[in-house]
Structures are given as structure tokens and as C-alpha cells.
Specification:
InterPro entries: MFS, MFS_dom, MFS_trans_sf, MFS_Transporters. The chain has 410 residues and is an all-alpha fold. It has helices at residues 3-37, 40-88, 94-120, 127-149, 157-178, 214-240, 248-271, 274-294, 298-308, 310-326, 332-363, 369-391, 405-409.
């Protein structure tokens, strides 16, 4: 890896680590506070709006990145996210939080796929290290944020979100000074690439759902399951495990992922097909959600946290590498936008469902019902992954759909 690539990777990893520190400082506290002040549904609804914002940004990502460059898109996205988070410290009511949550998500939807886009342009031999270190930076940030978050429990929301704003401001500066400016795509003749529209639904046609395309759909369900934990566990802790810090599950999962990700993923990839590896991850999520539902004490929560993290360990890095390998370099912007679309859609549905299912479990007098529902979905995904592994040893390449000439000219 060249000196320039190392510098770029260092800047990206520092920035994303700071972002995750900020996210895991405020996320559990905001969900818990909204759940107490309003309900599980409204807590989920505010987080749902962040993913509506992320989903919306996927329709503008390619056009904006072509006009201002991938680096410019990252800087603009981080700035929008930072300002919206700062505003959260000074507003009241679900409506105000919801509007700001949308812009938090929109900014994230511009910056996060931009970072993945840059990593995907690294030489193929350097990509595994780049993606692995990126994932590690995310987890170190999540652990740090979860540990630091406990210091803000008794402080005002203004102090909390001003601190988060400061972290994102440093993240923005890292993007300005470390990520190279020459990341805007160009055609083979060296001229600027044909401009995509500023708002386009082409991302919906960018992936054909044949062969390996089923993994994109599966990824959407994975993120639905993953966000069910992120939204559901602070509400669960507030109701049933009040003796422990609300952020505790997040530093347990973060430390577990950090320690086990590389050895477990390497071991399973050596002996299993991709579909089988993902099936193991979904099976672990099933077991964890059954633990949360069956036992509502601290011991059951801690055990579940150690198990649920295997979903992230086994699914996320494999999927990133698969997309980078299958997609041609010139289509990476659209591929990353498509990948982010499926992720955002799963998270969007999952946040709303998690809060609603929590309220349903309480109103029906069936504690744990919300966890049992997502456990059933997880075991269905595990069986689907196994069926796919039996059909083919490797996922077929995903071909970008060609747009009509008139659409390209526009």
C-alpha cells in the first residue's frame, strides 16, 4: 500500500471512528428518553426518520458525487449531519426531533457510501485490509461512544449534542485535509463522466434480482434485524434491567466483535460457502433474540449481547468485499448507492417495527413478544441462506441494468 493510500485510509478510519463515538454517545440515551417521554413507537419513529433521510440521499448520491466529487460529497454530508445533531440539543417534541433526524440521515447517506466508494477504488490486494480496518474503526468508535455515553446520563441534551457536534466537526476536518481531492469519476479518455441527474430513481434499477442479487435483498432483511437490536435494547433495558447502564449492551457487542471478528470470519470462510457463513450469522441472531425474549434479567441480556454480534461479524465484511469484487470500477458509485439503499430500507422498516413491536408486547401483556417476532424472521433468513448455498457455491455476478439511451442523455 502506497503512502498516499495509507494516509487516505488513516483519515477515513479516524473520521468514521469519531462518527461512531458520537452516534453511540447519543443514540441509546435519545431512544430511552423518547421512550419514557412518549412511547416505544415514537422513539422508533424518530430513528425511522433518520433512515428515511438516508434512503432519500441514495437517489441523489450519484449525481452529487459526480458534480462535487466523492470527497466533496463526504464533506457536505458530514457537515449536514453535524449541524442537525447540534440542533437536537435545543429542540423539544417529536415533530422537531423528526425533522432534524431526517437531515441527520440524509447527511449520513451522502458521507458513508462515499467512504465505501473510496475504499472500493483501492487496488484489489489492499481492499481486504482497507475494509477490515474500516470495520475495526467503526467498532472502536462504537465501544468508545458506549463507554463515554454513561457520563452524559444526568447532563442536559444541549451538552450531549454539543459534544457530538464537536466530534463530527473533527470528522469533517479529517475529510477536508486527508482524503484526496481527485476522486470524481472520469471516463477512459480522461474527460469528465456524463452527468447523472441530481435526483434519479436509477438506483432502483441498478441491481437485477437474479443470481447473486438475492444477497442484496437478504442484506436489507439483515439490517432490519440488526436495527431491531439497536432500537429495542435501550427500551428493553429501561423497562426490565434498570440496574445496568443503558449503553452497556453496545460496549459488550463492540468489544466482542473487535476481539472475534478476524479469527471467526477467517475460520468459517476457510471451511464454508458464503451462504453457509451468513446462515450461521442469522442463526446467532435468532438465538440472541430468543434469549432476550425468554429472560428479562441482566444475565439474559448479557448472554444475548455476546451472541447477537455474530451477525455483524459474519455478514457485514463479507458482503462489502463481495460487492467490491463483483462490480466494475466505473459502476462503483451506483453499486455503493444501491447497497446503501437496501441497507437504509431495512433499517427504516426495522426502526419503526422495533418500537411498534415493543409497545405491542407491553399492551398485550406478552413480554418478549417483540423479540420472538424478529427471531422468527432471523431463522427464516438462515434457512434461505442455506438453500442458496446448496444451489450454488459462489454468487453469480450482479450486472448493472442498462438505462434507455434517452435516460442516459438526460
Amino acid at each position: 500500500m502506497t503512502t498516499q493510500l495509507r494516509r487516505t485510509l488513516w483519515g477515513i478510519n479516524v473520521g468514521i471512528a469519531l462518527a461512531h463515538i458520537g452516534n453511540y454517545v447519543y443514540f441509546p440515551l435519545l431512544v430511552s428518553n423518547l421512550g419514557v417521554a412518549y412511547s416505544g413507537f415514537w422513539a422508533g419513529f424518530v430513528m425511522f426518520l433518520t433512515y428515511v433521510g438516508r434512503l432519500t440521499s441514495t437517489f441523489s448520491y450519484e449525481g452529487l458525487s459526480q458534480r462535487i466529487g466523492v470527497r466533496g460529497g463526504i464533506i457536505a454530508g458530514v457537515a449536514v449531519e453535524a449541524l442537525a445533531l447540534w440542533g437536537m440539543g435545543f429542540v423539544h417534541g417529536v415533530a422537531a426531533y423528526s425533522v432534524l433526524a431526517f437531515f441527520v440521515g440524509f447527511g449520513s447517506g451522502m458521507s458513508f457510501p462515499g467512504l465505501k466508494n473510496i475504499l472500493s477504488t483501492f487496488p484489489e490486494a489492499d481492499r481486504p485490509k482497507a475494509f477490515s480496518s474500516f470495520q475495526m474503526a467503526c467498532q472502536l468508535g462504537a465501544i468508545g461512544g458506549a463507554l463515554i455515553g454513561g457520563l452524559f446520563v444526568h447532563l442536559s441534551m444541549a451538552v450531549l449534542f454539543s459534544t457530538v457536534f464537536a466530534l463530527f466537526a473533527v470528522y469533517c476536518l479529517a475529510a477536508v485535509f486527508v482524503i484526496p481531492a481527485d476522486t470524481a469519476p472520469a471516463d477512459t479518455a480522461g474527460a469528465p463522466a456524463a452527468k447523472a441527474p441530481l435526483f434519479s430513481l436509477a438506483v432502483l434499477k441498478g441491481i437485477r434480482l437474479g443470481g447473486g442479487g438475492r444477497y442484496f435483498v437478504l442484506s436489507s432483511v439483515f439490517w432490519l434485524l440488526s436495527i431491531s437490536f439497536l432500537v429495542g435494547i435501550p427500551l428493553h433495558m429501561q423497562e426490565y434491567v434498570k440496574g445496568l447502564p443503558i449503553s452497556m449492551p453496545f460496549w459488550i457487542t463492540g468489544i466482542t466483535l473487535l476481539v472475534l471478528q478476524f479469527p471467526v470470519l477467517r475460520l468459517l470462510n476457510r471451511h464454508l460457502q458464503p451462504g453457509q457463513v451468513m446462515a450461521v450469522g442469522f442463526a446467532a441472531m435468532t438465538a440472541a433474540y430468543l434469549l432476550f425474549g425468554a429472560g428479562r434479567s441482566a444475565v439474559w441480556v448479557i448472554l444475548g449481547c455476546f451472541v447477537v454480534v455474530f451477525g455483524d461479524i459474519l455478514f457485514t465484511p463479507s458482503f462489502d468485499l463481495w460487492v467490491a469484487k463483483q462490480m466494475p470500477r466505473e459502476n462503483l458509485s451506483r453499486a455503493m448507492g444501491s447497497m446503501h439503499f437496501f441497507r437504509s430500507f431495512g433499517n427504516m422498516v426495522g426502526t419503526l417495527a422495533a418500537g411498534a413491536l415493543y409497545d405491542l408486547a407491553r399492551t398485550t401483556g406478552l413480554p418478549g413478544l417483540n423479540w420472538y417476532v424478529v427471531a422468527v424472521i432471523a431463522i427464516g433468513c438462515a434457512l434461505f441462506s442455506l438453500a442458496g448455498a446448496r444451489r450454488t457455491a459462489e454468487p453469480a455476478p450482479v450486472e448493472p441494468a442498462r438505462e434507455p439511451a434517452a435516460a442516459q442523455a438526460a
